[in-house]
């Protein structure tokens, strides 16, 4: 071996497992020598067994292509896309060679189904010269124009200048660069994870990756704790562990009982059964296994919180055994408003209770019970304003250091348990009944409850990494967390048991607490397919359930991909445009687009959630204020007027309107951008509504109008014909008639807005407003009509005052 020449460039590309004892190694380019490449296990140079060329389809499985002679074979396994019905959909190959989306509908670019080793694939065979002799990007697209996501771990993934992930055909890698092997008998995935290429004095290594094998592991066994007659059964999924111990105790002052060893029952799930009904007892696990650098994080001394625990004492545990038979149940679930009828307020539990003007104890004011009392009060803030849905910031167990610490909740530690920090006595699992009572209270007020949920990353402690880090998370090739969430890790929602953990915890929240919907934080990381799966599974339980995504992350944006699902999206385009528009920087065409329901991203009106402020970043007032340092605490006249214009647009825009609590009273955070731990800035200052009572009333009246019979002309179930709207413009000012074609009967609405500092004379057809009554302007709203200081009009002109809006109705 010492006489052979040193390679001129790196040889190894990657390596991954295909079973507990077999794997595949990929080289940088096709191997053209007759002898097999000199591959070894680890730096000890233990020869790999049975090294041989891998079937070309193994490369094709991951790269979506391989080469055979003068042909390129493009392929895609059908079950990697469970949410697509290929009996109805056709699949096409797209790239510069086919004009990208121009490939749709053309037979020569259509993939055909084919059985390979018992699996259904979609395959297209093309001559190399018809594709490219050089590297070229490609992707798959359905006949309805849906682009299929390229896995982030594909060996040939390539990002274009716009951040889109594509496959790349690489002529130097045709499938002949891939070799399969068997590890030495004493080594498997619990051992060292390095493959070495050794030739003479030259040596290089690559880390073994999980590959498709690990990420496809899925146990059919029911997880968590279940009381079954005279026994209590414990189960936890830990496929690469060597041992799992259960620590079960009745009193919190005895947290170190004798361990109970679990046994593996299906090669993936561990189980132990204990005599008696242990409802109310406490427990945790300790899991051990052989370390794989960068892939596992076993620690035999670390106390692990059961991912399926229904209640926990705190973020550090322990978990509490809950008999499912004692969980609250609803004989008649609440029926929330239809999606297109929703008017949502985003709020935080403690922001609502901190200054709530009713009597409650300090412990109650910190959580579910205090908020329930406030919701039941006759002057409850959200009820007075007229909202029919609340979107609560996360209420699942989070990593707050103490019950007193203010926390937004976006660092989740357990997905089944309501937050112990919001309970009056978490050691007795009171959070279960207290959260259920809170949801019931909202329902009695006619308000749907939507929960903000975080399945894109986990908080600290990161319990899942002690179960199987590589299985549950997206990792780089060197085993580091991919931090697309900005919170230190990214949960892999495509791993079957991670997906199942997400879906089963959501179903639990619906069945146990009668929750009406969910908003997915950084939904791009959850993924289009996972969100579609969630939608399908939840609607089987509660058909009316609301599913909303924040469709972006630090990795990308999927709002347009969600268009073909029933998942709604927060509309960040709307958010940015409306702020620009009311400050005089927008245009009439853009406003028309957003008022008419953002059709490019929304296949149905309620698929766009229109908002200008959420918990993140600076609040609305601080973003638009004329004051220095973004401090809108003392808003100017123009700040207030522009807020009124925003509210009129929000109410007249097709889609689901969402406001943040406190906007009606011109709430400011003093210009602070990130207030996730600032209860003093986030809590609702209710007395401010008295100071700015005109604005508070203005919001209330627009919400009432939105939910009225007149509002039905905006609360559309489906997009209307284009002539439903009739619009007029002058500079950036806009006037628009709703139901101009009479599609929804004889009623009409006419809305105008002028964001400029100058009077605008807008030309309209003579007689357009005959029979109309003005009911609103930039300061007033009266459903019976405004009869003084009306908008001036001549035969075919309207005179729109600076920073003004107006609404007319025609019966």
Q: Could you explain the architecture of this structure?
A:
This protein has 811 residues and is an alpha+beta fold. A hairpin with a 4-residue loop joins strand 21 and strand 22. Helix 6 (368-376) runs parallel beside helix 8 (430-444) and helix 10 (496-513) packs parallel to helix 12. The longest helix has 18 residues, at 496-513.
Provide keyphrases for this structure.
single chain, 811 residues, alpha+beta, eight-stranded mixed sheet, 20 helices, 43 strands, 26% strand
What structural category arises from helix and sheet content? alpha+beta
User: Radius of gyration, Cα only, in angstroms?
Assistant: 30 Å
Oligomer: single chain
Question: Which range best describes the helical content: under 10%, 10-25%, 25-40%, 40-55%, 55-70% or over 70%?
Answer: 10-25%
Our estimate of the beta-strand percent is 25-35%
How are the strands of the biggest sheet laid out side by side?
4-3-15-16-1-2-14-5
Mean pLDDT over the residues? 93
| Low-confidence sequence ranges | none
Distance N to C terminus: 92 Å
What is the strand tally? Answer: 43
The dominant shape is globular
How would a textbook summarize the main sheet? 8 strands, mixed
Tally of separate helices:
20
């Amino acid at each position: 071996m010492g006489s052979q020449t040193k390679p001129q460039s790196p040889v190894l590309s990657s390596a991954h497992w295909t079973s507990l004892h077999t794997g595949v190694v990929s080289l940088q380019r096709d191997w053209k020598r007759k002898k097999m490449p000199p591959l070894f296990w680890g730096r000890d140079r233990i020869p790999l067994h049975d090294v041989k060329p891998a079937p070309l389809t193994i490369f094709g499985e991951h790269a979506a292509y391989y080469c055979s002679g003068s042909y390129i074979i493009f392929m895609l396994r059908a079950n990697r896309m469970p949410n697509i019905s290929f009996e109805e959909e056709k699949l096409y190959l797209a790239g510069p060679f086919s004009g990208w989306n121009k490939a749709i509908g053309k037979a020569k670019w259509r993939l055909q189904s084919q059985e390979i080793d018992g699996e259904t694939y979609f395959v297209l065979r093309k001559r190399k010269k018809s594709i490219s002799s050089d590297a070229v990007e490609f992707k798959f697209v359905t006949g309805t124009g849906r682009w299929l996501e390229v896995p982030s771990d594909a060996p040939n993934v390539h990002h274009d200048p716009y951040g889109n992930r594509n496959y790349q055909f690489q002529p130097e890698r045709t499938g002949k660069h891939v070799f399969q092997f068997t590890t030495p008998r004493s080594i498997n995935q619990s051992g060292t994870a390095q493959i070495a290429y050794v030739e003479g004095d030259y040596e290089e290594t690559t880390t073994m990756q999980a590959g498709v094998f690990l990420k496809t592991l899925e146990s059919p066994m029911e997880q968590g704790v279940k009381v079954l007659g005279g026994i209590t059964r414990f189960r936890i999924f830990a496929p690469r562990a060597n041992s799992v111990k259960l620590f079960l105790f009745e009193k919190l002052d005895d947290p170190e009982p004798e361990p109970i060893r679990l046994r593996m029952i299906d090669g993936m799930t561990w189980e132990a059964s204990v005599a008696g009904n242990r409802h109310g007892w406490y427990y945790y696990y300790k899991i051990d296994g052989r370390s794989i650098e960068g892939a596992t994080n076993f620690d035999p001394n670390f106390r692990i919180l059961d991912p399926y625990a229904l209640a926990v004492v705190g973020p550090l545990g322990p978990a509490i055994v809950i008999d499912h038979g004692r969980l609250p149940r609803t004989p008649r679930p609440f029926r929330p408003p239809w999606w297109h009828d929703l008017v949502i307020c985003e709020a935080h539990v403690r922001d609502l209770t901190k200054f709530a003007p009713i009597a409650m104890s300090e412990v109650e004011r910190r959580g579910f019970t205090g908020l329930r009392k406030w919701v039941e009060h006759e002057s409850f803030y959200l009820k007075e304003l007229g909202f029919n849905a609340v979107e609560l910031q996360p209420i699942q167990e989070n990593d707050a250091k103490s019950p007193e610490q203010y926390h937004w909740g976006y660092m989740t530690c357990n997905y089944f348990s309501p937050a112990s920090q919001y309970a009056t006595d978490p050691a007795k699992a009171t959070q279960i009944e207290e959260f259920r009572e809170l949801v019931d209270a909202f329902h009695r007020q006619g308000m749907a409850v939507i929960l903000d949920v975080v399945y894109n990353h986990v908080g600290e402690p990161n319990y899942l990494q002690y179960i199987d880090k590589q299985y549950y998370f997206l990792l780089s090739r060197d085993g580091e967390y991919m931090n697309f969430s900005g919170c230190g890790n990214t949960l892999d929602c495509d791993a079957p048991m991670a997906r199942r953990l997400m879906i089963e915890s959501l179903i639990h929240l619906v069945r146990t607490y009668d929750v009406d919907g969910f908003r997915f934080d950084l939904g791009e990381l959850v993924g289009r397919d996972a969100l579609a799966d969630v939608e399908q599974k939840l609607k089987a339980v509660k058909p009316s359930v609301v599913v909303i995504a924040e469709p972006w992350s630090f990795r990308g944006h999927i709002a347009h991909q969600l268009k073909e699902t029933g998942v709604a999206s927060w509309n960040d385009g709307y958010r940015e445009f409306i702020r620009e528009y009311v400050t005089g920087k927008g245009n009439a065409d853009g406003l028309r687009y957003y008022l008419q329901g953002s059709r490019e991203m929304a296949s149905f009106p309620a698929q766009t959630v229109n908002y200008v402020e959420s918990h993140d970043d600076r609040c609305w007032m601080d973003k638009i204020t004329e004051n220095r340092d973004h401090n809108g605490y003392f808003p100017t006249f123009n700040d207030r007027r522009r807020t009124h214009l925003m509210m009129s647009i929000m109410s007249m825009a097709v889609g689901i309107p969402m406001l943040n609590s406190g906007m009606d009273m011109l709430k400011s955070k003093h210009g602070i951008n990130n207030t996730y731990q600032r209860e003093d800035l986030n809590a609702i200052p209710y007395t401010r509504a008295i100071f700015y009572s005109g604005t508070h009333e203005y919001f209330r009246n627009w919400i009432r109008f939105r939910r009225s019979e007149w509002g039905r002309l905006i609360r559309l179930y489906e997009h209307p014909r284009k002539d439903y709207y009739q619009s007029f413009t002058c500079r950036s000012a806009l006037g628009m008639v709703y139901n101009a074609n009479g599609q929804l009967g004889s009623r009409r609405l006419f809305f105008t807005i002028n964001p400029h500092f100058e009077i605008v004379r807008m030309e309209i057809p003579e007689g357009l407003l005959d029979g109309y009554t003005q009911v609103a302007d930039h300061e007033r709203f009266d459903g019976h009509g405004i009869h003084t200081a009306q908008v001036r009009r001549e035969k075919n002109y309207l005179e729109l005052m600076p920073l003004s809006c107006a609404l007319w109705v025609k019966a």
